[in-house]
Structures are given as C-alpha cells and as structure tokens.
Amino acid sequence: MSISSGRAGFPWWAKIGLKIVLSRLPLDYGVWRRLGLFRHGPMDQAGYALQVFRTHFSRCWPANPPKDFTCLEIGPGDTLFSALIARCFGAGATYLVDAGPYAIEDPQPYRELARHLAAQGLRCPPGVEEAASVENVLATCNATYLTRGLESLASMPTASIDWIWSQAVLEHIRKAEFLPYMKELRRVLKPHGRASHRIDLRDHLANALNNLRFEERTWEKDWLARSGFYTNRIRFSEMCDCFLQAGFALDIVKIDRWASLPTPRSALAAAFSRLPDEELLVQGFDVLLTPG
C-alpha cells in the first residue's frame, strides 16, 4: 500500500501528472513495479523485511510471546516475506491483508529469503526451498493472503489475532474507511493482544506536505485516489483520536518532526493552513496499541 514516489528529480507536481496518466494505461501493476514507477515499499528486500518484522515484534513482545501466536500484517505490499519470517519466530498462523493482489508470484525470492534467514540463525520451516509457487510458501507457513482490504478484514473471526503490525501503511487507507478499518482491527484483536504501527505523514511525492495543498473534494476523488500517490492526510492528533474511538489504548513510542514546515503554510488548503505548527511538523510516528 505504500507507493514509491517515482523517479528522483521530478518535481512533486510533475509526479502527480505523470502518475495520473500512467495509472490509466491498461498495464498490470507488475509491469509498473519492474519499471520502478509504482512500488509498494522495499519489503521485497530480505534484510529490510527482517528488520521491520523484528522492530514491531520486539516492541509488542520484548519477552515471552504467546506460544504459536497468530499475527496479522496490514499491507504486505510486493511480497509475502512476513509470512515466512513470522513462522521462523514462532507464529502458528499468519494473515496478510492488502487492498489488492500485489505480491510477487515467483517463488524464487522466497527461497532466497529462506537462505538469508538461515544465515541469520533462524530456523525456516521445511519445504520452502522446494516451493514451486507462492501458494506452496503460504501453505508451508500456515499463512493466508487476503486482498480485498476492509472487506477481507471484516471476514476474519473476532478476537482471533494476538498481534497486528504495519509499516507505513495506515496513511494509505481511504479517509472514509479509516475509522471502520480501525474498528475491525480492534474487533479481531484478542483481549490481551497488541498492535504496532509505523505511520508516515509526509506526502508520498517529495516527502513534504504537498498533499495538503488540495481541497478535500478534489483529493478524495476516486480517479485521484487510485493514481498511486494517495494518502488520507489524517494528521497526528486526529489519527490518535481515531485509535481511541476504535477502542484502543495507545502508547506513542516515537514522534519524528521537521525543524520547520517543508511546504509553505500559505500553499496549504484552508483546512490544513489553520492547523498549528506542532501538528503540521509531525512527519511520522510509531504507536503501540492495546485493547482499551
């Protein structure tokens, strides 16, 4: 769900125009990924995927994770690496929920990941090296890949998940769906479960606040939201309020701020130009959620 910002050196407005045009061409997402124009983050890199998993895992379970825990990753993106990594860390079952079937289908990257994990001293489930398809990898890891976003999440059993995590994904959930999505995450979490999220509040064009230049009636149009650079623009305090409304207690682990506004306040749409500096200066944060 986290979309790459495209070619380096392009101004933010050129990226918008280019992606609006390209997203309307009748080409599969895999073609755009290979060209480097549309990409769901670097989770296809073994070292990065392992680092992200470890960060969220250790935040939620610094000691004694539940035996054979069930976990859920929101927005796995271009690979399902987390299914194999979670199995190595003791997961009994893993769910991976995304807004579409974006994961690489070639089993070779998963075989390479298994070798990388073994080199790190982690014990992989048998059969991954011989897997002939992604479906084989998922079966070996007792993992389920669901690709209909909120609809998929709503199909999962209540209080079935020990641990939920996401990495720069929640900002991509459509604004109208955000609170319902958080309520579903709360529903599926067990009474003693935990959730760890990294949220990136920068625009996904030039890592600034250019996404706040637009009025909501324009930004939330389907044709724009489906063009590969959408973020819901929910700011820090509002997002924390959504977590609370959904029934979570929250612990803000880390807040990253700009030293000064990266986009002039005068360029922002009215709804955002009125916000205080301390709200606009938050470029990202890490949060730990538990049932409230």
Q: Any idea how many domains?
A: 2
Q: How far apart, in Å, are the first and last alpha carbons? A: 27 Å
What are the segments in which pLDDT stays under 50 over at least 5 consecutive residues? 1-7
Number of discrete helical segments: 13
Q: Estimate what percentage of residues fall within beta strands.
A: 15-25%
Characterize the largest beta sheet: strand count, sense, and whether it forms a barrel.
Answer: 7 strands, mixed
Radius of gyration: 19 Å
Give the CA-based shape: globular
> How many β-strand runs?
7
Give a description of the structure:
The protein has 292 residues and is of the alpha/beta class. The protein has a seven-stranded mixed beta sheet. The protein is globular.
What's a concise summary of this model?
The chain is of the alpha/beta class and 292 residues long. It is built from 13 helices and seven strands.
Question: Any descriptors?
Answer:
Rossmann fold, 13 helices, seven-stranded mixed sheet, single chain, disordered N terminus, globular, 2 domains, alpha/beta, 292 residues
How is the topology of this model organized?
Blueprint: H1 12-22, H2 29-35, H3 46-60, E1 70-74, H4 81-88, E2 93-97, H5 108-119, H6 134-140, E3 143-146, H7 149-154, E4 161-167, H8 175-188, E5 189-200, H9 216-219, H10 222-225, H11 236-245, E6 248-257, H12 270-273, H13 277-280, E7 282-291
Parallel strand pairs: 1-2, 1-4, 2-3, 4-5
Antiparallel strand pairs: 5-7, 6-7
Helix pairs in contact: 3-4, 4-5
